[in-house]
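Bit of a strange request maybe. I'm writing a small parser for structure token strings and I need a real example to test against, not something I typed by hand. Could someone generate the tokens for this chain?
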Amino acid sequence: MSPKAWRRSLIVLLLTAALIALALWRMEKNKTPEKSDQLPALVFKAGELTQPGMYDIGRRIEISGTVHAPDSLTIKAKASGQLKSLSVIEGQLVQQGQSIGTLDLTELQSRLAERRAALAAAKTALTQASTQWEANQRLAERGFLAATAIETSRASLESARAQVQAAESALQTVQVQLRDADLVAPIRGWIQKRLALEGEKLAIEQGIVSILSTDRLEILTPIGAPDAQPLQVGRPQSFRIDGVNEPVQATLSRIMLSADPNARALTLVWAIAGSPSLRLRPGQFAIASIELANPHPRLTLPVDAIRQEGGKSVAWVIHEGKLQRKALITGKRSSDGNRIEILEGLSESDQVLAMRFEGLREGQMASVSHDARPKQPGAAPAKRESPSS
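Reply from user aminoacidic:
Good idea to test on real output. This should exercise your parser:
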């Protein structure tokens, strides 16, 4: 190799070694952590800090139940007889007083005629006893009749009067049975189910049809006995019901007195406000969220003051003039979603950065401008990307 080529190779090797050394130096410089005392001191405004505070975050419980129709009944036969006709079908709307069918009341009508004949016979016997009593009185006045005979005649008259009253009562009973035997709808509603067939021989109190009224609907929801204590009758509540797009408004009308011993729950009865829509049907599923006050305030922090780093909740605080990052264990959120419960990691005296800042280093010097106090819980500071330095 010539001296000139050898010098070129040496120069190339030296340049390569210099570049490698420079790259290694830069790598080592990047690995070396920047000392906190070499970083600029940060000065925060009072509105950029907050403090944990005791706050009633409340609690939310989910309740669910079904739509219920309290006005429902079954029309039953009030007399034995054959069902001659049934003019309604399932799902048909009937009005109050509308005839739904006819019943063969031959037996009841025969009994009515028998009671009328018995009443007529009793009245005839009463007339005879009254005539005999008047005749005996005239004979007794003339001294032709003994006192015992007068008493016997009086007893016969009273007995005849009692027989007439008994016959009248028996006749009225059959008349009432005949009137009640008319198959008419006592309320306005929908035919839910037919319980008898035309031509069927019915016994007394046998069901014929069941009627369901949707003019008044309620929602029945079970709830734990402790959760039911703060609820008051008249409380409004919005429900989501299957098949209905818009929320349904209801009012707590009553709380059942006895609890279910198996579920240890009370039943809440919610009256649906206004006129129920035809889209509401008994048996539909209903669900709602109830906000309950918490009697014990909890230590909370604004949500904006909490950061997620590595899957953990952390907060930056100013402690003894330096920034410190504290890991948090959080709990429930408030009903408005602005605050969150702090179970572990902070105390009420901590000064916490109320918003997200970029480029913070733990141990960096920090202070609050003009010895202003941190803002109290509840205020919403404006976000900043970086603090004043």
